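Notebook B, p. 112. Complex prediction, attempt 2.
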Amino acid sequence: LAKTTQPISMDSYEGQEVNITCSHNNIATNDYITWYQQFPSQGPRFIIQGYKTKVTNEVASLFIPADRKSSTLSLPRVSLSDTAVYYCLVGPGSGNTGKLIFGQGTTLQVKP
Amino acid sequence: EAGVVQSPRYKIIEKKQPVAFWCNPISGHNTLYWYRQNLGQGPELLIRYENEEAVDDSQLPKDRFSAERLKGVDSTLKIQPAELGDSAVYLCASSLITDTQYFGPGTRLTVL
């Protein structure tokens, strides 16, 4: 099983770049890495997904080293509204067998 | 485009009573997931459907939990009888084959 490990919490200030790292030493060949954001009383919201190297979209970047045993979510210039819990998910694509496992989540607190 | 719809949003029941949750996935999404999220924890997969077939139900407590996805669209998750430890948020998600999961707002269950 591709278990994931993340820091429990992080603090930052508005305007700073935030990097959250997830460890997944037992990642399988067909596993993708996906990050979600969750606000209180809401379901998780997709942020970004990758398989290897670097992926960037309008809200974040995802860095995955060659061995794929870890990944780093990078949030540029965070604002107060980025205060949330961030989850790292490792799992296969649909149609494949295997477990979909969420990490413990990292609570990001952005301060003014 | 409408997102994943869940009902009810909140449910309070006495222990030993039955309860059911309903989910309507995003139109065209063939994969549907049910998760349980305990307070302060990441979502835990209960069951995953590919169309109408349950392809992963290994985490579903089958002595009291059941689920169905008739016609491969809407899904219902049932608990009978409910126990105190079942108090949690029950999340439904759906996806296409890319495995980007889109979550509903969840149903918060309180068992008294």
